[in-house]
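Q: Hand in one record:
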Amino acid sequence: MKTKHNILTLFATSFMSFMQLLDASIVNVAIPSLTKDLNVPMNRAEWIVSVYLIMICMLLLFWGRMADQIGYIKIFQTGTIFFTIGSLTCAMSPSLYILLVGRVVQGLGASMSMATNIGIIAMIFPMSQRGRAYGINSIIAQLGNISGPGLGGLVLSVLSWHWIFIINIPIGIIVYIYGRFMFPKENRKVKRVSYDWLGLITYSIAIATFFVSIFLGQDIGFGKVSVLSTFAVSLVFWMIFFYVEKRLAEPLINLKIFKISRLTLSLVSALIVFSIGYYANVIMPFYLTNFRALSTSLTGLIMMAIPFANVIAAPIAGYFTDKYNAASVSIFNLFVYAIPIVFLMFVTGKENLYLFTFMLLFLGVGNGGFQNNPMIMGYAPAEYQGIAGSLAALFRNLGMGIGVSLATTSLYSGMSVKAGKQIAYYPSHNPSWFLSGMHFAYLTALLLLIAAIILVYSIHRLDKKA
């Protein structure tokens, strides 16, 4: 395949990743509009974000394993179709329930494409060019993840929330048509498809029931028998999953990889940092649009400070990573990350918007400077590179899903303590309750950040001993 076709294919697969990660975060800024238009409380509307991420977390490893057997391109193209159909369903949704169905279909398609785009890049680029290709793919995909609220605010300033889904449709069609004619031909790799179905079932139930217990707890209270029972089911299925995986010749996840301590610490720290990053996606739209009474266009512009700083910080941090090491660079940037988090713990709502935007820039610098991929892939031996890449994507999406859960749970808890009753919606008549909830939420974010710093420092110490 000619070089220009390689580049076009790289951008086709990367831009699909961009759109799919964008859809994981762009909906957050539309939640205030969705709660009004669909007449649902804020905690129910958050399911629109969560069900998409849950589907990706449940199926990402499954499609990665299937792609190794039946081909990357077949699954990528099928995923593009499902993602586009899901986007159309979301755009035409008259109710929350139809919208959730559309998000499930979107999540199915996104999991298929996310699991295979790296494999397609490996197919079309020689070894000498793959590093740069992976880097471009990572930057484009990450930009989608963090630019969602900003772009969403700009779209909503002139159009309805339906358009955040409509814009996916022509892009999905173009990518599919391009792939139909320009992707390399790929034969089926095996005659008989084999898979760890028991591992998939137990893992999927464990993931789904974990998130259901969190959001059910937000709705009715965490002390309820139904919530505790659902969490117990999740715990039981996690135990069954690990029991099964240890005894299979070809498991869903080769648990031996977690014996590599620096790799495991890198994965967990990445999950924590991605969770923290999602606090802004969940909380900032309500703070800026509802509490500060700003227009959606101005909210979008202010929140664009985060991806703007991220894009600048990421390559600079990459340069210093090559010069020093990923753990050292990451520790420095996590301390930078702490600056805006402490600031947001004490906001009064009267801060100058220029100062507020400047602080959001630090969120982008801290996030962009955290070198999770170099740490994860750098500590994975050659025989584990494939599974390490899949786990990196899984922990990233798990982090985003857990981030939604933690951000909303801590926000509602803080508001409930202030109000003296259960609160799971934006308190329009008592905005001070929201501010208290926001302060508490960012206190939990700071505690998570401290945990991440400790983990990365442990990696740094292990690097010195190696």
